Every structure is written in C-alpha cells, then in structure tokens.
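Weekly structure sync - notes
Attendees: PM, LS, DV (DV joined late)
Agenda: review two folding runs queued last week.

Item 1: First target. Sequence and structure tokens pasted below for the record.
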Amino acid sequence: MKLTLSIVSKPGHPDLAIASQLLQASGFVYASQLANAQALLWFAPAGTHVKTVAELLEPLQIDWCLHENEPKPCQVLLCDMDATLIAQECIDELAHLAGVGPKVRAITSAAMAGKLDFTQALRARVALLAGQPQSILANCWETRIHINAGAATLVATMNQIGAKTVLVSGGFTWFANRVAKQLGFNQFHANELGVEQQHLSGTIIGPILDGQTKLEHLQRLCSPPDNACVIGDGANDLLMVQAANLGIAYHGKPILEQHANGRIRHTDLTSALFFQGIAISDWVIRAE
C-alpha cells in the first residue's frame, strides 16, 4: 500500500506552488504531473490522514484527494444531482416559484447538514408544493437550473473509458431524466412526484430514494465498491461516499467532508478525473 495525494488548482494558480512547498516540508515526495501548473501527484508519508491533509491545505485554493494506493480510472461513476451536477436544489427552486421558499429552504438546509431525517424532510417539503400546476416543473428547469462546470466532460470521459455512469438523486425524476440525458449518463434513479389533474399532489410515489438507497445502488453496480468514484454534497450522500474507494465531497457540507477522501471546492467537476490519475490529454472535452 502506497499512500498518494492528488492536488489540483485552477490553471496557473499560485497556490499550487505554495502547496507543493508545504507538502515537501511535511515529508511528501513528488511523484508526477497530470497537467502543467494545475494537477500534481505526491507520495504521502505513512499514516497520513484526511484530517492532516485538510489542516495543511485548508488556507489554500487547492482541491485534493488522498488515496490508499496510486490512483487509477474507476469502473463506476455514481453522482448525486442537486448541488452536485447542477448548481441548485430543485426543491428549493420549485418552492421559490410556489411562494414557499423560506419554509422549504430551512428544511433543506437542516436535512443536508444531517440535522433532520432525509425522508421526513423531503415529504414535508413536497407537501408544501401541493396544488401547484405541473407546468411549474418546466418553468423551473428552463429558468432556474444550471449544470455545474466540468460535469459534461467528466461524464463523457468516464463513458469513453467504459465506466458505468449513474445519476442517483434524492431529488425528482422529472429533473434527473433531463440532466442524465443532457450529460450522457447510462442510467438515473430519483424520486417521482405525485401529479393529479395536472397539479402536484404534494406526495412522492413509492419508496423514498434516500442515503441507504444510494448505497444499495453503489453496491449493486460495484461489489465490493472498491473501484468506484462517488460524488455528492450532503448528508444523504454520506453512506455511498464512505463506501467508495474514491469518495468526493463537492462543495460538501461539513458532515460529508469529514468522511470523504477527496474534496472539490475551488475547481470544477473535472478534478474527479485528475483524482483518478486521468491526464488531461485523455479527456473527452465537452462544451459547458
């Protein structure tokens, strides 16, 4: 077992050189470069822990991933949707259009931080949308939803190398279907909103897709999940991120960052490719 550390910055950012100096002074040994002035791989001293790296690099605009072995391309890419592949939480945007934004955002924030049970919180938020016209979904998609930078290139590259690419969301199938098609995911899973007479019923059809369900999808796709790249942002992503050998917190809530071995805060989703040791020359570049 050889601990390695991937570090990534925006191209040419001066913090990459500062990080390199700090790592070298802390006993890390330079290994290789994946992109000039952007992505480097280091060998980490034995016993290095995620908390150690976090404390060392926290002041810098550096994203990073600590690996138990040298990184390699993964066989599975499993991604959350809301606040991960897209910049928004769909339920919050729907609530804004419905005029109940503050009530729903407060519940969302508590649920993503792990302070509320996800299933109960989702049902409570969806109930506040009861009676809204079904057209609110299209209005939300067209005016308020934006794909995050790097998502298209990440999925296209993973598809190119033959990985299974799966979107798994505690959000809604109406949006997950469109995001999955636009980005090229092999499959998607999410919750289905109830609709009656072209109006939202305020209910979810069938069982809730929660954190445990996300973990089960990972285990089904890759058992044991020792060659999967998993990306999420909140508490309901915790189980699958912990189980994966490459678990990434994307602008993650503190509860998720504590348990992820990779963090993306300052760059974009293509850093997940660097974290797998995939050089930029091997990417399938897609327009944003």
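Item 2: Second target, run right after the first with the same settings.
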Amino acid sequence: MSQVKFGAIMFATDQSIQPTELARAIEERGLDGLFVPEHTHIPLTSRSPFFPDGKLPPPYLRTYDPFVVLGAAAAVTERIHLGTGICLVSQRHPISLAKEVATVDRLSNGRFIFGVGAGWNKPEIEHHGVVFEQRWKVVRERIQAMRAIWTEDEPEFHGEFVQFDKLWSYPKPVQAGGPPIWLGANSRFVAERVAEYADGWLPVGGREGGATIDQVREACVRRGRRFEDLTLADFYAPQDESQARAHIAQGYTYLVFGLPSDTRDVVLPALDQVAALVDRLRR
C-alpha cells in the first residue's frame, strides 16, 4: 500500500488552531498533505440541500484565504503537499489566480496541489458576477487560461468568459505544466470533465454520486488518456479502518481525512487518531 498517500483537511479559520502549527504537526506525524477549503463570503440568502435552513456551520463563515494559509504552511514545512480542497475557481479572476497558484508552488518548491470546483452556493457565486448555471463552463475556461499563463512566455486567451491579449506573468510554477489539478465534484457530468482537463478526481467521502470510477475510466479511454495517470483522491475519507481499506480497494490513491475546525486542544488529538489509522493502513 506504499503508493497510497494520506492527508488531512480542515477549515482554517480565525477560531481554529493556527495553520502553521497544524502543518508542522501533519508533517511530524508522517502524513503526506494538508488541504484547506475556501469561501470568499457567505450571503445571508444561502440555501443548500445540505443546509436547507440556511444555517451553515460557523467555519463556513470564517475561512481564511487558502493561498495565504498555504504560503504560511510552506514556510514551516519541507515535505508535505499543500493543497486547496477546494478553490472556487468560479469566484476568482484567472490572471490573479494563476499568479497565486504559481507563487505558492514556488514557495513550496513544487508541493502545491490545485483542488478546484465550481461551488454550490448560488448567491455566493453570483456575487462574483458569474451566472450560476454557467459556472462549470467558466471554471473550464479559466483553467485553460491559467495553463496558458503557466506554460507560455507571452500567453493570450480569447474565449467566451476569459479575454486577454499577450501578457507577461511570473513566476511560473515549479511543476511542469502547472500543479496537478484535482476536480472536486460528484455530479453525473464529472467523468467527462475530469477526462478533459483534470489530473485527478476528488469526490467527497468517496461518494461517487452521479458518476463512477468506471465512468471516469471510460471517459479517459474515449479521450485517449491514461486513466492510470489520474489521482483518485477520497476527500473526508472514512476514519473506520475497514471502510478506508475498502475505498483503497476501489482505487483511491490519496485519502484525505477531515479534522474538526477547532482549537489545538481538540485538533491535535484528532490528528493523532488519524495518524494512528494511517500507520495501520500502511502496514
């Protein structure tokens, strides 16, 4: 099971353990990565099937900017991956986002993983001037534009949602072609999206939803891609050992366990439990 990697994800907020302390603790315990989510803000009109009463858990309201968190984490670690889980590309401008991603990848010496998504919070997305129903088209085009910025000396892009003439943008990422892009989604459309423009798939908790691993494999074949080159990341992986082993048997190669968004007195013991589980899974 040496090829399987293990990380942790936490809503980093102004009320939780300092992200730098958490990053050091994750590295010290032998895990492979730290991931953080984001929300730019939470509109009071937010509604979701997950939170039908509109009352979101407090960490959703208080998230730090993920790139500032990961930049700080890069300064105090040497080995672990540092990733967004996920970055809401539908809410960020691709030129500035390309620079943020490249900067963290540089500062971490190529340890950044770019987990991306379109978002579920309709008013939050629309506050950024994006039509909710078009959000995945926007994400796709912004990723294409960012890859051009990362790989070309004088990139230009002319699409439906992104327009810019030739420009200079540095730094370039350490990782060739840019950091790996893991697509966070569970819908029935995800297989084609992953096969077209992602380097990995990260359904939450292994909930494949409207798509399956087999459908992602088939979509890769149709596009002439090697399915084996994709990372299958299990976000908020089960912390029951038998269930975790079952997910690994399904093909997941990076299990990311959730930690409570809380103070160090709560988070570090929870991380110790995760580390003990990882130790058993690696045997």
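Discussion on item 2: The chain has one domain: 5-282.
Action: LS to circulate a short write-up before next sync.
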